[in-house]
Each structure stands twice: as C-alpha cells, then as structure tokens.
Amino acid sequence: MELDTGFRPSDDGFGFANTWHDMLFGVIASRGRCGGMVFAALDAFAAGVPLHGVARQPVRPGHDSAVARWVWRRQVDSVLTHGGTNLIRFARFTYLPTSHELGIGPATRRDLVRLFDLLRSGRPAPLGMVSGLGLPHMARNHQVLAYAAEFGDDDVAVRVYDPNLPRRDDVTLEVPFDPAAPVVERWAKRRKPWRGFFVEDYRPKPPLR
C-alpha cells in the first residue's frame, strides 16, 4: 500500500457484525450502529488500546452490555460531533445531483485530498457513504473507516473497515478519477455501488478499557 496507517479490521475492528436495530432520537431509523463502531474502533486504535473480550467475539453483545453502550454513545457522536456537521453533510451530499460539475462526483474527489492527507499522517479516517438521491435514501447511508490507499492509473483503491463485514481486510472502495463514475465497494466477488462519500469530522474520546 502506498498510504498505510497500520490499522487492520482483522486485528483492530470489532469481531461482530453491525446488526443493531435502533431509532436515532426516537424518530430516525439508523443503519445499525456503523458510525459508533467506526468511531469506537478508531478511538481504541488511536489510543493504542486493542479491542478485547466481547468486542472481539463474533457474537454481537447484548444491548445492556458496556460495549453496546459505548458503541451507542459513539453512534450519537458520529452524527452530532462539531455541532452535527456530519449529519448536515450527509443531508447535503444526499441531495447533490449525480451528473453536474457541482454534484456529488466532484465533491467526493475533492474530499480525497483530505483523506490522503490524513492517511499520510498515519490517521485512519471515517467516511460517510452516500447511497441514493433524496430523503428516502438517508437511512441507507453508511459509515466506514478508511485506513490505506493504493493508486492505479485511472483510480485509487481505498481499503476500509466496514462494520457490516467484520474481520475482513479485503474490503476496498474503488474510486475512479472520473467524477462521473460511481464509487464501488468490493469484497470477495461481491460489489456495491455508492454515489459518493465524504470524510467525516472526528473527535477522539477515551476508549472503553
């Protein structure tokens, strides 16, 4: 990898999959706790405190466990940090047009510069993944953690920790340099297209010990 922070989902991510079912603030259906798992895993990695115990087990812990409460707190933080900038950007990116010079394609490529700077400095970066266009797709958006990148002739391959795919080091976002092309998430022989993404604001907190 040309840019590599040293994070690996198989070693540094949660052992269980993101299969939570929650309502954020009682009114917004969340896509599990992907943001909480990303922020919590990054907290532990940045502090040099490896995840351990039930956090590394393949079975998701109960809602009343310390790990579940930690992940939930970080889920809320992932959308409300810095005055809710990530939630605002999710809403803005969801409504950006697909094919336009001011659309989501160019906006995603501009955020690549910020992403590369973070990876170059050794810091993994949370990404807000945008699924579709318009309000009905807000609940289908997602959060992952970028930890490495490798450049090709026409695209860049960004390695990510996807909480939906635990312990996998082969999950990659293929980002063509052409802003009109979609971002494609790949693992094994599967693929999932995304309209685009942005680098999320992140404020570290002490991890669960």
Describe the protein:
The chain is α+β, with helices and mostly antiparallel strands and 209 residues long. It is built from 4 helices and 10 strands. Strands 1, 4, 5, 6, 7, 8, 9 and 10 form an 8-stranded antiparallel β-sheet that branches. A two-stranded antiparallel ribbon has the order 2-3. Helix 2 crosses helix 3 (66-95).
Q: Which characteristics define this entry?
A:
4 helices, alpha+beta, eight-stranded antiparallel sheet, two-stranded antiparallel ribbon
Ordered list of secondary-structure elements with their pairings:
Layout: E1 3-4, H1 9-12, E2 23-24, E3 28-29, H2 34-47, H3 66-95, H4 104-120, E4 125-130, E5 142-151, E6 155-161, E7 172-176, E8 183-187, E9 190-194, E10 196-199
Antiparallel strand pairs: 1-5, 2-3, 4-5, 4-10, 5-6, 6-7, 7-8, 8-9
Helix pairs in contact: 2-3
